[in-house]
Amino acid sequence: MFVNAGGDAFSEAAGGITFLGDTYFDGGNVMRTNERIVEGGDYPFIYQSARLGSFCYRFENIPPGDYVVDLHFVEIININGPKGMRVFNVYIQDEKASFSVQARMLHFGLTNLYK
Fold it and tell me: Where are the domains of the chain?
C-alpha cells in the first residue's frame, strides 16, 4: 500500500504501482509545491506534497503479519530553518517506534520490519 501524503492518487498500469490519494489521516494540513524535484526517483510527484502539523494515519483491518514500513520525506519549505524544527515520532500499532527522525535532507527512506 502506497499513500501519497498530501497528494493525489496515481496508478501506473505498466509497473503495477498504485498510490492512494491522501487518505486514512486525522488532522494536519497540506502543503504543496510545483517545484521540480530532480532527485525524486521514478515517482518525483510524491515529493511535491506533505501533511504538516499534528496528524496521524490509521490503517484499519490490515491482516496480521509482517510488514515493511518505508517512509519517504522531503523538505519543501524553510530548508534553512533552525536545527530540530522538524522533529517527530513514528508510532506503529500504538507503540513508539525505536527511532526519531529529523527531515533535513531532500528525501530519504527508512525501512524497518514490524510484526
Answer: 2-114
